[in-house]
Amino acid sequence: MIYSKIIGVGHYVPDNIITNQYLESIMDTTDAWITERTGIKERRYFTYGKDTNASMATEAAQIAIERAGITPQDIDFIVYATITPDYYFPGPGFVLQRNLGIQNVGVLDIRDQCSGFVYAIATADQFIRSGMYKNILVIGAEVQSTFLNHSTEGRGVAVIFGDGAGAAVLQATTDKNHRILSTHLHADGNFAEDLYVKDPGSTREKRFFDDLIADKSTGEVIMNGNMVFKHAIVRFPEVIKEALTANQLTPQDIDLLVPHQANLRISEYVRQQMGLPEEKVMNNIQKYGNTTAASIPIALSEAWESGRVKDGNLICLAAFGSGFTWGSALIRW
Ligand code: UT7
After folding, report:
1. Predicted TM-score of the model (pTM)
2. Running DSSP on this structure, what letter comes out for residue 183?
3. Which CATH architecture fits 3-173?
4. N or C end: fewer C-beta atoms under 10 angstroms in the chain?
5. Is 37 in the pocket of ligand 1 (CB under 6 A)?
6. Atom of ligand 1 at shortest distance to CA of 113?
């Protein structure tokens, strides 16, 4: 039987630190409000001319590949999750592939927002289990800062999001004791417009550029924050329990939960619902904000670096986001 296992993780965050105090200086908000409602103290923004979505992914990928003990030439497929590609098309996977010097290797872009990395892991896992590929590079990367409205009007969204990239290398294995145990994906399109960016979409009668001049807000993130929150705190525990049940395991078996970093209050609520102690939940939203598809691989990579992900540990990745989408991946490390 072929399974997949994660053999290397890496991340890159831009060096431009945006503190809550800086946001206080450009919009009507306070460090106290942001900290109390989200747990975020600072986030990173890309530096124009230095970072792009694909360049950050390249940095993260190079670290993950090196830690995996392989070379870019060993990668035989790329799965890339993002909602903020360098170009509207083609996706950033092509740029990453070029940067890594591995032309001819297939590239698949995943658009599942905050659940993108879990969807990407699930996709890569299936390609490996089918025997089609042996070493798959999985990316979650975002440049969101330029989609945000930094005036007071946009404060409910702008203070939350940040930029960054994370990567993982999945490899084929027959070792039942070190592998991805299962993945679980869900979506509910009834809430498509509760967290979305309308343009550049194809719902218009004519070129959206003409309309954009009149209404710039259609290029910004529109979020019904309360609705997202309400669903997130139900779907996170649900999809974590689904993964545990599928593997005849219980919350007590989890060594580390790595949730999508949406909001510290959401992660804390999920932790309590699952009956997990604080040290078993990875939180780094305080430093990076919500980096959408990048948040789980960045958190996983930081957890690994700090020794919180050890051989034989049961690691649970879980996500919820726009779509709505949600999902989990249970890993015996
Ligand atoms: O990955 C998925 C991505 N999205 C999420 O996870 C979002 C989930 N939702 C949330 O995290 C929360 O809903 C938010 C953090 C976005 C908002 O927190 P909230 O406690 O739901 O606040 P609210 O939207 O109900 O707004 C409460 C008040 C409002 O003022 P009034 O009407 O009570 O006077 C807002 O205008 O807070 C005000 N407000 C702000 N004040 C200062 C909204 N944003 C800000 C801000 N600074 N940045």
Report:
1. 0.97
2. E
3. 3-Layer(aba) Sandwich (3.40)
4. N
5. yes
6. 1
